[in-house]
Amino acid sequence: xxxxxxxxxxxxxxxxxxxxxxxxxxxxxxxxxxxxxxxxxxxxxxxxxxxxxxxxxxxxxxxxxxxxxxxxxxxxxxxxxxxxxxxxxxxxxxxxxxxxxxxxxxxxxxxxxxxxxxxxxxxxxxxxxxxxxxxxxxxxxxxxx
Length: 145
Known about the structure:
Elements: E1 3-7, E2 12-17, E3 20-25, E4 27-28, E5 34-38, H1 41-49, E6 58-59, H2 62-71, E7 82-86, H3 89-100, H4 110-119, E8 122-126, E9 139-140, E10 143-144
Parallel strand pairs: 7-8
Antiparallel strand pairs: 1-5, 1-6, 2-3, 4-5, 9-10
Helix pairs in contact: 3-4
C-alpha cells in the first residue's frame, strides 16, 4: 500500500531497514514543508519506528493523499498548456503574483516562477535580453575612437 509522509519543514532522516541504514530525503514543497512517498512495507515500518514519527514526520491522511494525487495528474494529451510570452522574468513574476495571488517574496528565482506557472497549466516564454545597445568606445593609443 502506498503511504505518504509529510513534515512542516524540509527534512532528511536516517532509518534502519534490515541491516542497512538508509538516508531519506523528503521532497520539498513549493510553499514549505516536504513529503516522502513509498510502497515498501519495510521502509514504512522503519519510518513509523523513527523517533521523529508523530512529531516532525506524520502520515498523510488517505483522503488528503488521494486529493494530492488528483491535483498532480498530467493534463490530457488533448489539452495543451497555454503559452504566455513575457519580455523579462520580472514581468512574468509580476503576472504570476497578480494572477495567482502568490506573494512576490515566494517567487525568488526564475525556476520557482516557471514551476508555479507549470503547476497552474501555463508555459512561460521569456524573451532573451537584447544585446548591449550602449556606446562602445575603443582606445587606440591616446586617441579615443
